[in-house]
From TrEMBL, chains A, B:
Keywords: DNA-binding, Transcription, Transcription regulation
A GO term for molecular function: DNA binding
PROSITE patterns, alphabetized: HTH_TETR_1 (PS01081), HTH_TETR_2 (PS50977)
Species annotation: Sphingopyxis macrogoltabida
Domain annotation HTH tetR-type: ranges: 4-64
InterPro entries, per database record: DNA-bd_HTH_TetR-type_CS, Homeodomain-like_sf, HTH_TetR, Tet_transcr_reg_TetR-rel_C_sf, YxaF_TetR_C
Ranges annotated as DNA-binding: 27-46
Domain of life where this protein originates: Bacteria
Record flagged with keyword Chaperone: no
Protein name: TetR family transcriptional regulator
Pfam families: TetR_C_13_2, TetR_N
Length: 202, 202
DNA sequence: GTCTATATACTGATAGAC
DNA sequence: GTCTATCAGTATATAGAC
């Protein structure tokens, strides 16, 4: 068991636990027992609990492409389809966890009320990576959207809808709330596409 | 200082603290010191900390009309305007707190990962009251919306957008994220109104 | 109903042998 | 780098006098 292994195992375990129970409700003892690591080892790699959180947020930030986008976009070419394929990925997560687990970054963002600047900026960076990826989809479909459409704002809006939809599905323990929200978003996007088409005939 | 006063002061203080610091980070000691109540008194009224939370959630649930809707809808008659007036109220909260405090229910909903059924259902009831109020606005404007519009789903969607917009503004500490999200929602609602008008001429 | 003192459990973090 | 033992602080909750 080399050093990189131990450090990595700590981070993977912490990632799991923060997702399941949140940051505040996860104790160092929880991380130690599940990862089969002893106190001395953890504090050898990390000065304190918050530094474990920083490590986890960096993993999310650096892994968004491989861990999140690639699996959901496999075999999906149309940029608009990609947007809803990603949202479908979140739906699957909700389903397999009985509407218990949602977006880990969103949960942390609302749980930690006064985050250290380092933590806050990492959460923001995660949001930016996410909404920028969606903005890229809107950019790729720019010729099918009304002229002057703000891809960045639309990317942020899709993130907003995902987070809100997850929040409601979790609170009600009912996937119907997620589905209805995504259906409204779908209606909006359809409307944008139709408006652009209508204008192009005018 | 009569009993009702003490109980009420505990709940008002807890409401403040849960909003500022969250549920987990608020200790009973915090509530006691700020409310100037002693341990024995609090435990006389509430069996435990979670029961204080239940009391707070009941206050939100019972006070949504007087505390939230009435102030934001004063002098606003048009149902569509009411929707955006309520959202403007959340914007004001963000502004006066330097983008620190958002929706108290949303924060609790994402902070508490495994809530007791009582707590979860009270959070859900708060969401339902909110989105039902908005659905009422869409109902009142039904004749200006495309036929067959789902007012309930639209009410839930507006809640979603509010929560997501607040989450991003808080995480970035930047009201611009809130404003852009609401602007996109405004565009969507405008589109709905225009589509209905166009259809009525067809 | 209010107040003080305190029980008990658990928290993040540390010291020092190996 | 790993392991054990443990510290000091704080959490929720309680007991019992008034």
């Amino acid at each position: 068991m080399n050093a990189a292994d131990t450090r990595h195992r700590i981070l993977m375990t912490a990632m799991e636990l923060f997702w399941e129970k949140g940051y505040g409700s996860t104790s160092i003892a929880d991380i130690l027992s599940r990862s089969q690591v002893h106190s001395g080892s953890l504090y050898h790699f990390f000065p304190g609990k918050q530094d474990v959180l920083v490590g986890v947020l960096e993993m999310y930030r650096d892994g968004i492409g491989e861990m999140l986008l690639a699996p959901n976009w496999e075999g999906v070419d149309d940029p608009i389809d990609k947007i809803f394929a990603l949202l479908a990925g979140y739906r699957t997560h909700l389903i397999v966890t009985d509407c218990t687990y949602g977006c880990p970054i969103g949960s942390l963002a609302l749980e930690i009320h006064e985050p250290d600047p380092v933590v806050r900026e990492l959460m923001a960076a995660n949001f930016t990576n996410w909404s920028t990826a969606i903005a890229g989809c809107f950019d790729a479909a720019a010729d099918r959207l009304p002229p002057g459409s703000d891809a960045k704002a639309l990317g942020e809006f899709v993130l907003t809808v995902m987070e809100g939809a997850v929040m409601q599905a979790r609170t009600y323990r009912d996937i119907g709330y997620f589905d209805r929200n995504i259906a409204v978003l779908r209606d909006y996007v359809t409307t944008l596409l139709a408006a652009a088409k209508r204008d192009s005939f005018a």
